[in-house]
Amino acid sequence: MSVLWTILAIIFILNTILAIITVFRQPRDIAATWAWLLVLILMPVVGFIFYMFTGRGLSRHKIFSLQTQVEDGLAAKIHVQKQENAAQRLLPATELSNESTELVNLFLSLDKAPLTKNNHVEIITDGHQKFKMLFRDLRAAKSSIHIEYYTIYNDRIGNQLMDILKQKAAEGVEVNVIYDAWGSQGATKKWWSQLEAVGGHVEAFFSSKHSLSDFRLNYRDHRKIVVVDGEIGYVGGFNVGDQYLGRLPKFGYWRDTHLRILGEAVASLQIRFTMDWNATVGPDEKLSYSENYFPEVSNAPGNVSMQIVSSGPNTDTEQIKMGYLKMISSATKSIWIQSPYLIPDDSLIDALRVAALSGIDVRIMIPDMPDHPFIYRATQYYARLLHNSNIHIYLYRNGFLHAKTFVVDDHIASVGTANLDIRSFKLNFEVNAFIYDKDIANQLHDIFLNDLKHSTELTNEMLRKQSRWLRFKQHFSRLLSPIL
């Protein structure tokens, strides 16, 4: 027995030493460091296998590939306005304020995201509405269709999309599709081959297609972008799958928020897609600047000003999170947020607390059902934490809430793919539209109010009724939150 204990002690010591060496080999924030140490030490062998697929950072080559795409044939289209003049020159007088000017300048500095104007924006909150509009636009495409989704399922709606893309490719329209292999389970190469057989081009996002030795499970392409003929753009929370139309009993009705955009901002979405495509494909398949991809906007379709902002693990500036922090700090009246996952880091927690304790109306709406157990328990933990700081937490109960929206003072808004969680800020490739328009902000305000009719506010009594076992799961999941 003493020999067995000695062997176990040696294994534990070696495992601990290897865990420390493994975690500290690359720089990462202290919360993620401790989370990985916990996993590697408490789960010998299994923890290392998990780390191999989800814990390693991106290679220097891949980071360089993504960061240099802006210079690879697209610089002719990217005219970044000077920080000191951009907002004053381009924002309508009705939208000009210190808050909007500072946010515009922040994104010019962090993301080189040009401020675009003269956009027409339609807000979509229902899956049936979204796919009806999207399929109509795809069928009318004349020159190019560019699609990038985290999830494209091989199911009923996925095959409807496939049929349209095959038809357009057969007609001679250029069809390029990027999908995330992890998020699109079931959409196999065999399934995609039917599109390629008629001239379409399909690629799994670069972080999900390489060999086992270089596989990075943790870095997902969470973006949802469609650009048709360089003139119509879509961005937001909806993926492609039957569940997004409320067809899965597990989730019921699916409440999401998406944008259909006409105007100058479509070029920014096109640039983002092209950069992701060029980072994924081989040197002979890269896209270069073309008038077909970036047609001139001759007539102003609307008057909405916005910036398309991207973030991902290829940089350490966390552009979208910085935008959220700036919006929170600039609020004077209200901050209304919708997110399916609520796992903020310390900086966001402090910012939200300061706002609420300063008398600002801070409301956060989350779903009242899980789609990922650990993430949901961590969300419950942070919901309780923020509730105790005078922040109103609402549980949406009419199905599953997947919208990612942010509205400040009914003046500035954000809609996109980034959740209010650490994964979206540090690990996923995301894209958001930051909008400077009172009408759009008011529409999102009204949508939030309508969702309140199907929600219940978290109360002290509800928290007291939570069992000790549930609270233990919440606390344990919170320890893993930096790597969930």
End-to-end separation = 39 Å
Model regions low in confidence, pLDDT < 50 over at least 5 residues: 70-84, 209-215
Helix count, per DSSP? 17
β-strand amount: 15-25%
Biggest β-sheet: strands ordered side by side in the sheet: 4-3-2-5-6-8-1-9-18-16-15-10-12-13-19
Radius of gyration: 23 Å
Quaternary state, please? single chain
- Sheet with most strands: 15 strands, mixed
**How many strands in all?**
19
- Name the overall outline: globular
Q: What is the arithmetic mean of pLDDT? A: 85
Structural class: alpha/beta
Percent helix: 40-55%
Description:
It is found in: Cell membrane. GO terms for molecular function: cardiolipin synthase activity. This is Cardiolipin synthase. Catalyzes the reversible phosphatidyl group transfer from one phosphatidylglycerol molecule to another to form cardiolipin (CL) (diphosphatidylglycerol) and glycerol. The protein is built from 17 helices and 19 strands. The strands form 3 sheets. A 15-stranded mixed β-sheet has the order 4-3-2-5-6-8-1-9-18-16-15-10-12-13-19, sandwiched between helices. Strands 7-14 form a two-stranded parallel ribbon. A two-stranded parallel sheet has the order 11-17. With 484 residues, it is of the alpha/beta class. The chain starts with a helix and ends in a 5-residue tail after the last helix. The protein is globular, with a radius of gyration of 23 Å.
